[in-house]
Amino acid sequence: MMWPQYSRTRLLLACSTCNTRFKGNKHRGDGFVGSLLIDPTREDPFEHLDLGLASGVYRPVEGSPKGEWTIKVCGLNEGKRPRVRAEAWLNLADDLRGWAQARAVGDVRNMRRKIYRMRTQPFADVCYAALHKAVSEDAPRVFVAEEPGVLDLLRDDELRAAFQM
Question: What are 58-114's pLDDT values in tens digits?
């Protein structure tokens, strides 16, 4: 599942595998509100899903049947997806440092290129998850093992503005 350029309204069209092979017509309801599948046009997926950045594995947010059902139906943790997401996290950290280096020397063109790359890479949901986690209360614990400066970069106002967060 990808969030290209962090537009939740585009998620439904972003992943044909999820929309056809996995999701299909599996719109099981919760008996109250409607489908148990997360509707990214109406809600933030990270209210229901937690992505382990280093592992690339999605887990449902505690108490979220929508998170559980979406992971199961869309096969978010099947095959090579977790490994590729974990690799995307490493690439993101490198791009964040590259963005900071470009900013330090005033290279606006390279800063824009790094932002574009982060926003459009396969599994760009990793970037969205990292930006989301960076401003959470758990951020110091979540990013404790990361190289110095990654959390600070994810919290940087200029970087976040470039993502229109």
Answer: 999 998 898 999 899 889 999 999 999 999 999 999 999 999 999 999 999 999 999
Angle of CA points 108, 114, 119, to nearest 5°: 125
Q: Output phi, psi for 58, to 5 deg.
A: -85, 140
Q: Are 72 and 24 in contact (CB under 8 A)?
A: no
Burial (CB count within 10 angstroms: exposed 0-12, middle 13-18, buried 19+), residue 32: exposed
Residues 6+ apart with CB under 8 A from 153: 96, 97, 99, 100, 159
Write out the two tokens for 76: 């978010």
Which residues contact residue 31 at a Cβ distance below 8 angstroms, ignoring those fewer than 6 apart?
Answer: none
Nearest CA to 51 out of 10, 2, 117 is that of 2
Q: Which residues of 45-83 are buried (b: 16+ CB within 10 A; e: fewer)?
A: bbebbbbbbeebbbbbeeebebbbbbbbbbebbeeebbe
